[in-house]
Amino acid sequence: MAKLLESHGIIVKLFAGDVKVYLQIVNVSDTVMLQGALDLIVEWASTWQLQLFVSKCNMLTIGHVPFDVKYSVYDTVLPYVTTSRDLVTVIAQDLSPSIHISEVAAKAHQRANCILPTNFCVQRHANESIYCLRASNC
After folding, report:
1. Residue 133 lies in domain
2. Does residue 54 surpass a pLDDT of 90?
3. Residues 13, 20: contact at Cβ < 8 Å?
4. Where do the DSSP E strands lie in 25-98?
5. What is the average pLDDT score of the chain?
6. Is residue 21 one of the residues assigned to a domain?
7. Mean pLDDT value across residues 103-118
8. 121 touches 115 (CB < 8 A)
9. What's the angle, vertex CA 98, arms to CA 96 and CA 100, rounded to 5?
10. Which terminus of the chain faces fewer neighbouring Cβ atoms within 10 Å, N or C?
11. Do 65 and 112 belong to one domain?
């Protein structure tokens, strides 16, 4: 399947159970080619008795698209999204790394908070008050 699509100028990436299809849309014939690639994937899955989960399928547009086209799989129109996850990397429509960086930083903070001591006490010397902060274990 991948070699057949690539022979038509469509870039295909396969990993485990995922298929990613890339194509630069310049004219209307490119949109027809992309829908044809999706149809070929459906046909291939049917031949090999594999199920495609349409609920996990989406379209990510990068850059300006001159045409308003709706692509479908199993007669279900695929939604356009502004971000998509590729393994652990979040790809944004504008190719900005900010969403990916925010997610990585949030996970790092979450993990760092898990390794803080469960009891942390600070004693003020001025009036001998003791402040204790108790953090729950993760």
Report:
1. 97-138
2. yes
3. yes
4. 59-60, 72-73, 76-77, 80-81, 83-86, 89-92
5. 82
6. yes
7. 76
8. no
9. 100
10. C
11. no
Instruction: Give the position of tokens 């729950």.
Output: 136
Task: Give the mean pLDDT of 92-112.
Answer: 84
Quick one: 8 exposed, middle or buried, by C-beta within 10 A (0-12, 13-18, 19+)? exposed
DSSP reduced 3-state for 6 = helix
- The amino acid at 70: K
Assess whether 56 and 122 both reside in one domain. no
Instruction: Give the domain-ending residue among 61, 84, 107.
Output: 84
Check whether residue 51 and residue 112 sit in a common domain.
Answer: no
Q: What is the mean pLDDT of residues 53-69?
A: 88
Last residue of some domain: 46, 63, 84?
Answer: 84
State residue 39's pLDDT score.
93
pLDDT band at 59 (very low <50, low <70, confident <90, very high): very high
Question: Parallel, antiparallel, or unpaired for β 130-134 and 119-123?
Answer: antiparallel
Q: Do 79 and 14 share a structural domain?
A: yes
- Report the domain count for the chain: 2
Asked whether residue 91 is assigned to any structural domain, the reply reads no
